[in-house]
Every structure is written in C-alpha cells, then in structure tokens.
Amino acid sequence: MSRSDMNMAERARFQGFMILDRFRGGKIEEKIRQDIRAYNEGTLIYETNEKIRNLIAHAVRTTAFYSKFPEDVELKDLPVVNKDTWRGDYDAFISSAYSDRKGCREMTTSGSTGTPFTMIQDPDKIKLNTADSIFLGMLGGYAIGEKMAFIRVWVNNVKKSRLRLKMENSLMIDSSSLSDESIAKIMRTLRRQRVKVLVGYSSALGEISRWIDATGHDTRKYSVRAIIPISETMPDTVRARLKEQFNCTCQAWYSNEENGIMGLQLPDSNSYYINSESYFYEILKMDSDEPAEDGELGRVVITDLTNYAFPILRYDNGDTAVAHTEIREGRKKLFLTELYGRRSDLIYDTSGHAVTPYIITNNFWDVQGVAQYQFIQTGLKDYELRLNGDRSLMNVDDMLGRILPTLGEDANINVVYVDEIPVLASGKRKYIENRCPEYQR
Fold first, then answer.
1. Along the 441 residues of the chain, how does pLDDT read in single tens digits?
2. Domain spans, the chain
C-alpha cells in the first residue's frame, strides 16, 4: 500500500498514519484490505445482504421515518427517498442512537443543484469512509502522505485549517478565478511545491489544460503523477490531453458529500468501478421504481451500508447511469459503464431519447476559437448553444454538423455569443443544462 516514488517525508506520513490506525485497532487497514479483495474478486453477495438487513433493522428501531416498517422488511419494499424527502422531515431520519451526535461529523453539500444539505456521519462511517478514500485514491495513483493539491472553490464550510493541511501534506487552491494570471500563479505553486497529485473540479482542470496549450507552457519539470477530476463530466479530449501534458494517469472519482467517494473511473475507459463493499446500488427505470436491465439507462439509487447515524436507504441522488454487473461464485462487481450525471440536466434528442453528454463535450471541447461553451435544451426540439471565444476562428456550421445527426436533423439550435459562461456558487460550471419544462416534471 505504498508508492516507490514517495520521498522520505511522504513515506513517513503514510507509515505514521498506518501505525496510528493499528494502535487504534486497525479498522482502517482492515477495511482497505477488504476493498482490495473486493476489487480483485468481487464483493460477497451474502455479506452485502446481511449488511442491508442489519441497517434496515437499525433504521426501524431507531428512526421515526422507518419505525412504521417491520424489521425484516425487504429493501425493495422501502420507499425511494431524495434530498427533498430528507429536508421535509429531517429529524425523522436521524438515529436516536446518535442523537447526541458524539463523535459524528457533518458533511454539507455545495448546493449547486439546490439548497445546501447537511449529512450526519457516525464515527465508524468516518473511519470506513477514510479507508475507502485511501483505497480508491491508490487505484487512481494517489497514496496518502503524498503532496496533493485540491482545486475547488473553498467556501467557509469546507475550508481546512493550516494544521490539517500540514498533516495531510495538501494544498487548498482556489478556483474562483481562472484568468490567465490566476492559472499562471496556480502553475507556479504546483511546480514550486512539487505537487504529485491534482484533485479538482473537471472544469477547472480543463481550463488549466487549455491554458497550457494556449501558452505552450513546458510541464516536463513538474512532479504531477496523478490527476483525479471530481464533480463534473470531463470530456475525453481533455482527459487525454491532461494525461499527455503531465505524462500521468487521469481517473475521476465518483463521489458526493452525503456518502463519500464511491467509485473510480477505469484507466482507459469512461466506466466507473463502484465500491460494493460500502454501497449497494440499484439502477431503477427512469419513470418508475422498477429495476432497469443491465445496459439500460436508469436512475442511481444508493444504500449506504456504513452510516448508522443517518441511515441512507434507497437514496435517489439525481444521477443517471448505465450499469454492468458481473457475478461469479457468489461475488459481485458493479460498473457504471455510462454516467450521465443529473437527471434534471440530461439532454434528449428530438425523438425524446436520452443523449450521452459525451456527444456534446467531446465534439465541442477542441473546436478552434472556443474558450467556453454551454449547451442548453430549452424545448422538446429546441436548444441553445452559448459560445465564448474568438468568433473569427469559430466554425459554427462545423460544430452544429457534429451534433445534429445525434440530436435529429429537425433540431432547432439557437447560437448565442457571450463574454463569459458563469460559474455556480459552488465554483462548478455547467456545460450541459436542460431547461425544457416537459423534462423538469
């Protein structure tokens, strides 16, 4: 569980963390080993079923919301919930066993797709989530203790103290501004601090990649060994370019504040490996709570097997995906072969069929003259393409020709030129958005 290219100080941090965990009972190291075995062989199905039964029984005994159900109720017979359900009766979901919240942690969402929401995590969940993060970090090329830079908008509720940053050997790099001057400053910090791992919003990393190309910046003397995009879909072209620019891996985490890091993008595809040791995923049909078939687009519904302070059972997190399940000798592996993101921002063609966001992002990212773009569906057959950049270089007819065959030749695409694509309060930038009233129901 170590990296050969770690320096002495980084290796000391890694070893010190593991020694401290062993002193405290070794729970994190044990979970990491379980995660590794599940990755190689699959998760034992009977163990997952037992975890689900135990979690349901606990929720029935200790929460007001689930108290009306019998302890042996099947997961499929429980209601599907979402953040609005939780907000509507928040206290009813908190376990009475953790009413004092001793040792618990509060995780607050950014609110980029709605009102911010606070999730309570119990002490065991915190430890197991730490183990999962270490494991999925290792898969992505990051070993705990290595110099890491986290690029995001650092609002007050997520800022870290200087002591914690020093302990983690990490940097907070703010992406509120991504002007040429700001990116140049970021790059100087990455080189001077010998940062080995970049974790950050996909859009921010994309802007850095674009700046490198635009300026011809030489990245050969940087120490970056791994890039881990988060939060937003990264176009294949940007991912490939970052790998070339830094000569390193680039694999996205699948995560949220409510649950933690749940999966990792595979090295050479857009598929995500999901950590089934800690999460039970259902992919349900788009218009009902019936299971979708393997290979069918559906809603991501999560049961968090490790959080007892706020039992998360059948949580529709708003994402849509296509799943592939492998079962062998009583063990299961789950992959999301396509991850579409928020259902509210899913684009549909003129016949009403869902369109993968990669059709848009991969076709538009490398167009000459385009600094930023945003693609919005406004009606059943109506779309708006917002462009920021050098109009004299943009070939709009070529851009439309790339996507019309997918959307439908009867698509009405209105092109609008803007000076800036605004970022959300969280610092994320929406490249794809659906504002069609018929699809917001």
1. 445 567 776 777 777 777 877 888 878 899 999 999 999 999 999 999 999 999 999 999 999 999 999 999 999 999 999 999 999 999 999 999 998 999 999 887 755 555 567 899 999 999 999 999 999 999 999 988 899 999 887 655 556 777 777 877 888 888 877 788 999 999 999 999 999 999 998 888 988 998 999 999 999 999 999 999 987 778 888 899 999 999 999 999 999 889 999 999 999 888 999 999 999 999 999 889 999 999 898 999 999 999 999 999 999 998 999 999 999 999 999 999 988 767 767 788 999 888 877 778 778 777 888 888 889 999 999 999 999 888 999 999 999 999 999 999 999 999 999 988 776 665 566 778 888 888 875
2. 10-273, 346-439
Where does 346-439 sit in CATH, by number? 3.30.300.30
Helix/strand/coil for 246: helix
Strand residues in 169-274 grouped as ranges (E): 170-174, 197-201, 226-230, 249-250, 253-256, 260-265, 272-274
Q: Supply the pTM of this predicted model.
A: 0.83
Tokens representing 124 are 């065991």
Q: How far is CA 272 from CA 136, 229, 295, 358, in A?
A: 11, 13, 14, 15
- What is the DSSP code string of 261-299? EEEEE-TTSS-EEE-TTTEEEEEE-TTSSSBPPTTS-EE
Q: What is the CA radius of gyration of the chain?
A: 22
| Residue of 301, 275, 264 lying closest to 43 (CA atoms) | 275
Q: In DSSP terms, which residues pair with 373 in a beta bridge?
A: 387
Amino acid 265 reads Q
Between the two ends of the chain, the Cα-to-Cα distance in Å is 47
Selection from 25, 94, 105 nearest residue 62 by Cα: 94
Distance CA 198, CA 230 (A): 10
Q: How far is CA 185 from CA 190, 199, 211, in A?
A: 9, 17, 12
Q: What is the torsional sign of CA 82, 84, 85, 86? A: positive
DSSP state of 1: -
| Helix 8-23 / helix 27-41 crossing angle, nearest 10 deg | 100
CATH number of 10-273: 3.40.50.12780
Say how far residue 346 (Cα) sits from the centre of its chain.
Answer: 16
**Is the distance from CB of 151 to CB of 201 less than 8 angstroms?**
yes
Q: How far apart are CA 245 and CA 206, in angstroms?
A: 12
